[in-house]
């Protein structure tokens, strides 16, 4: 009987331990012109919000943006350096990364990469080149050379492609230089331009990144120069702008450059980062109309929040503060979406976070 009680106690202890130590890897893209050597990994506890020891996952040049395949067996990293490359990486069982192959991004300053839902295509945005390149992915994760390259430069306007995302048969591209959101449609295995801009972007707002709802009915564009979010809704005839909201606190009067934007898991809340005000702006989203209403501006406890992410549980938000070399961790209130700062950890030049 005594042995049985000890056995049950041991099993209970093991089960409690496993429930309280649900860790997943967080990969960190960086700039390597300082102390950083490449892509780093930290284990993240989804129950407590704790980050583990910082480890170098792969030594590689300027992996300033990184993206998973849907099965998380591969990561694609831009090489924002002299080579202007896109790198295919294998995720090893121990969390380290192995370089599979490297191909050209076909333009200067690759700054963003994303993968489609099927995991067989990737798109890279070249900020310096003003173009985007689309790639087929092999079953082993390796990259083929780009099968399409879209150049958005004109004689009178310099393009600054800053991000691109797939949604089913759509490919959307945000162009900060030409103040446009391009829409391409997949037809006969190739993408064809459907619209040079899905909505008119007045003035010089500088559309940078954007977030799409799962059904593709709403797009939220964060504008680097204007310090605003443009809310867009799909209609029978295309798209229309339904809202325009400032990301800044009413009392802030300094310079600012918006950067990243994400929806919460349940799509009830929207988050955007301000570089300058150094804050995360929190918005409540009306799921019926698609409009948003700002409810919080909170300090990132660092400098220059270039990128941020929500963990898979939806209970934490983590911010990569480029200039202050730290990652800040926030808890998310599940009822009202607001953030509370927990703590931060030192990481060299973090600019992209990937769960």
TrEMBL record:
One of its GO terms (cellular component) is cytosol. Transmembrane segments: none annotated. It comes from the Bacteria. Keywords: Carbohydrate metabolism, Glucose metabolism. GO terms for biological process: glucose metabolic process. GO terms for molecular function: 6-phosphogluconolactonase activity. InterPro entries: Cycloisomerase_2 (IPR050282), Haem_d1_sf (IPR011048), Lactonase_7-beta_prop (IPR019405), WD40/YVTN_repeat-like_dom_sf (IPR015943). PANTHER family: 6-PHOSPHOGLUCONOLACTONASE (PTHR30344:SF1), 6-PHOSPHOGLUCONOLACTONASE-RELATED (PTHR30344). Belongs to the cycloisomerase 2 family. This is Lactonase family protein. It comes from Seonamhaeicola maritimus.
């Amino acid at each position: 009987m005594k042995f049985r009680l000890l056995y049950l106690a041991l099993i209970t202890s093991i089960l409690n331990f496993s429930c309280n130590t649900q860790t997943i890897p967080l990969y960190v893209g960086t700039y390597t012109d300082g102390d950083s050597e490449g892509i780093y990994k930290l284990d993240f506890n989804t129950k407590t919000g704790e980050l583990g020891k910082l480890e170098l996952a792969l030594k590689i040049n300027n992996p300033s943006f990184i993206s998973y395949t849907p099965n998380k067996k591969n990561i694609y990293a831009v090489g924002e350096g002299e080579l202007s490359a896109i790198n295919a990486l294998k995720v090893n069982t121990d969390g380290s990364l192995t370089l599979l192959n490297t191909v050209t991004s076909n333009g200067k300053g690759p700054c963003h990469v994303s993968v489609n839902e099927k995991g067989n295509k990737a798109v890279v945005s070249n900020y310096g080149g003003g173009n985007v390149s689309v790639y087929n992915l092999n079953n082993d994760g390796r990259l083929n050379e780009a099968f399409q390259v879209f150049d958005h430069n004109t004689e009178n306007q310099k393009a600054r492609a800053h991000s691109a995302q797939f949604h089913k048969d759509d490919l959307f591209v945000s162009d900060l230089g030409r103040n446009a959101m391009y829409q391409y449609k997949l037809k006969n295995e190739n993408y064809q331009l459907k619209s040079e801009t899905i909505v008119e972007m007045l003035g010089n707002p500088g559309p940078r990144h954007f977030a799409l709802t799962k059904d593709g009915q709403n797009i939220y564009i964060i504008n680097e120069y204007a310090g605003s979010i443009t809310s867009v809704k799909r209609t029978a005839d295309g798209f229309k702008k339904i809202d325009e909201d400032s990301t800044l606190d009413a009392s802030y009067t300094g310079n600012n450059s918006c950067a990243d934007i994400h929806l919460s898991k349940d799509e009830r809340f929207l988050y955007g980062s301000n570089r300058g005000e150094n804050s995360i702006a929190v918005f409540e989203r009306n799921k019926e109309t698609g409009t948003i209403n700002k409810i919080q501006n909170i300090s990132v406890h660092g400098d220059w929040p270039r990128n941020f992410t929500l963990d898979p549980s939806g209970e934490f938000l983590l911010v990569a503060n480029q200039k202050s070399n730290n990652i800040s961790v926030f808890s998310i209130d599940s009822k009202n979406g607001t953030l509370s700062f927990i703590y931060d950890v030192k990481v060299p030049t973090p600019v992209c976070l990937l769960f």
